[in-house]
Known about the structure:
By secondary structure, the protein is an alpha/beta fold. The chain folds into 2 domains: about 5-220 and about 410-460, Rossmann fold (3-Layer(aba) Sandwich), CATH 3.40.50; about 225-405, Rossmann fold, CATH 3.40.50.460. The chain has helices spanning about 10-15, 45-50, 85-100, 115-120, 125-130, 150-165, 175-190, 220-240, 255-265, 280-295, 310-315, 315-330, 335-340, 345-350, 355-360, 375-390, 410-430, 485-500, 515, 520-525, and strands at about 30-40, 60-65, 75-80, 105-110, 120-125, 170-175, 195-200, 245-250, 270, 300-305, 395-400, 435-440, 450-455, 460-465, 470-475. The strands form 3 sheets. A 9-stranded mixed sheet has the order 1-2-13-12-7-6-3-4-5, sandwiched between helices. Strand 3, helix 3 and strand 4 (about 105-110) form a beta-alpha-beta unit. Helix 8 packs across helix 9, helix 9 (about 255-265) crosses helix 18 and helix 12 crosses helix 14 (about 345-350). It is globular, with a radius of gyration of 24 Å. The two termini are about 40 Å apart. The structure holds 1,6-di-O-phosphono-beta-D-fructofuranose (FBP). 1,6-di-O-phosphono-beta-D-fructofuranose binds near residues 81, 84 and 204.
Amino acid sequence: MHKNEGMISPLEKKRLSYVPQIPPLLKNIGSLSLEEVSRAKAPVAELKSLFPRIFSAPSYRVGKGKGKAARAQKVGVLFSGGPAAGGHNVLAGLFDALKELNSRSQLIGFLNGAAGVLESHSKELSAKMIDGVRNLGGFDLIGSGRTKIETAEQLAAAAETVRKYSLDALVIIGGDDSNTNAAVLAEYFLQHNVSTRVIGVPKTIDGDLRSQEIELSFGFDSACKTYAELIGNIARDAKSSRKYYHFIKLMGRSASHITLECALATHPNLALVGEERKTLAEIVRQIADLVRKRKQAGKEYGVILVPEGLIEFMPEVKQLISELNKILAEGKPPAAVESLLADAQRQTFRLLPEKIQQQLLFDRDPHGNVQVSQIATEELLIELVKRELKDLKWSAQPHFFGYEGRCCLPSNFDANYGYALGRLAALAIKEEVTGVICAIQFLAKSPEKWALRLVSIIQLMCLEMRKGKQKPVIQKALVDIKGKVFAQYQKVRSTDELEDRYRYPGPIQFFDPDVSDSVPLTLER
Ligand code: FBP
């Protein structure tokens, strides 16, 4: 019996007994081996000096064969960054497979992200603990955090911890930065004769950790389905009450994948896509035109989706932010900043409502940068469109959907995908590889047809300017505005502006096979 059985809801109880569907190969990991698929050089030769040991490490395809013996392994695992539904299933998949391979294997959860490694803060995960979180949302069994292991002192502390615990492997479940970190650690451990191997697992609701090999991270599907349910409900309310424009900001720190997926699922009157790189003035005009046109058609309501990262894509705001960062970094007082801006940037600054000006000047992260994700873009747009439509009567309601979607019960897709990723990580550990990320392909098909890969993380990396220095990173995958998914949205965009073709997806379904096994629309395309 689950220890909190009295506390859990009937649906959670039911979900605990769901058996994730996985590719047949993953059912018997002991009978699998790895085949090298490429030993291609990483795309940027300069990475070689930073990662001499893993620079030309191969990627692998998984197949039947006599792999390495299944010896007892001691494995550490941590979550990094924002929660994403399906994370507990990664732990369950990893735990089950490790124990099936050798019942003496142990899984140690580091608490609250990489900080747990630096502070040696951990707990050994038992079958009882794992059984209590199967197919449930959240990362709460071990917590997560945004600490990075970057400095020489942190790297040394991480090496000390994994040595102290005698870990054979460390599994890092995270996004682009965390998997970059996984590569840094893999290299560091090899260079310092630490025998712990490092395996990455792709996680983020943002859907921006993608490459040719990685189709999607887990968590995106459940988050989008949750937001799409809420957007559908709001659309129905808009159409019923006929008096508000709903400006709905959706999470996604940089890329607009979540907004695009929700647009395909719900058909709002407009979905802004940051990657189109329109100026603030263009966007305000576009929305004002939409409100005018709909008014002429007798409609004084509507639904507009706004991606969280929109503001950073607007060329003039981007320039303003970079100028502000420079001036403030020179230690100039915020009150003097406006007078120090170049004319064009001063104009942009003056256009912004006071609340946003204050956010740009005072709400800074520990590195002194603007906290772009905290800016109320939905409120900014409402205010500026109101100015533009002075003589027109209309009302707007701002919303922000973010945290609501990160810890929901995982959809069947994410429950299956997370569990399969965990089992694949166990295979990587058995086969003693390091510096690889788990990649599952053909995700739009049913799990029986998924293909399994272990991809050398270095293959995903490039050099990018960060805080004035060239740094190795996994580049975020933005929405490709020449790609198929955006084209699909473009096809319906102008019709959806005036006609109300809202779709109401309703809550995530778990039990009706016609609905419950749906995959993200982004993948179907
Ligand atoms: P990850 O990239 O760590 O998965 O986080 C994604 C995200 O949910 C973004 O969409 C959002 O901007 C950010 O986390 C919010 O972060 P925080 O939890 O620190 O407020």
